[in-house]
Task: structure prediction
Amino acid sequence: MECELRDDVLTAGSEAVEELYDRGFYGRVKDGKLEMSLIEGAHLLSRGKIEIFSDRKALDFKAFFEIASERVKDFELGYIVFKDLRERGYYTKMSPIGFRIYPRGGHPGKTPAHVFVYVISERAHLPLQRMISELNKAENARKRLILAIVDEESDITFYELKKTIMSGGQAEPDVVGAGMPAAASLINDRTIVWEPEIADFLHQNYFFGKKLDELRLQLSLVESGYLLDKQWIRIKHKNAAEFNEYAEGVEPGYTLKYLVYSNLRDRGFVVKTGFKFGTHFRVYKQFKTDTHSEYLVHTIASDHVFALPELSRAVRIANTVHKRMVFGYPDASTGDDAGGVGYVEIGWIRL
Result:
């Protein structure tokens, strides 16, 4: 089957329509002829299904691959992923960010594509806002969004990206008659609650802090800020605003971290440090019934740019310890009900 290379498109005669389009769902039909992308052409050329000519000269795979790499941005990445998806049995069509793929047993014209695939190199950087933009497009089209990261050895790792609505099951604290606000002292980077009954109430019922001993409770900075803002504790010479300024000095980034912490607590989650997992928080839906946290949540700025090895490490750790990796970020578009925080879950998948 002969194809002609013209700029960044391959064209073939009407005989290719039946052979390559009707049976293999390659390319698109235009004016009775078949047009294909260079990535599709490279795949077919490697399998001996077509011949490619440029200025009446036949191109072997090496020559064509070098030409295509000059004409199409990240051509080699797209070829690697396209070939992999096709060999896995997925009908795959081109899209602006990579590909759209069809469910097994389905194909173009029979079933709609169910996945958008975003192709990227391990060395590239992925801005959060670009990720959110593509997620919005996928969501509006009722598609899943999968990130295909190609490493330096041409291996592909697939991650599913999705916006998630975080909803916990912890009951709203009932502090009536609990003697609030309780006296507490700020000591460097933690706060001590001195009153034994209040210490027990906060820890035993709502899993705030960690017991310093049988009588006293120590709180982290974000826990202290939250309880101070709720007026469940009082700190001498520090109102909520003064405390937050102090905490930001002790822990740069505290303000952003506190935004997500308080949002998760308000949504009914129990939130504890995720330091041992390399994240900001480990998150439980309910303290009384959950023995293991369901999520790892890491706080990022709205202008955050992901380095893909960093993303891979975070997701791999979460997967290893059977938790879901979620990134929380400031998002004014969520409205007051969501507390100005958006959440993206990223998980490793096997296609």
Observations:
- The mean pLDDT is 92.
- The domain at 1-72 is CATH 3.40.1170.20 (MutS, DNA mismatch repair protein, domain I).
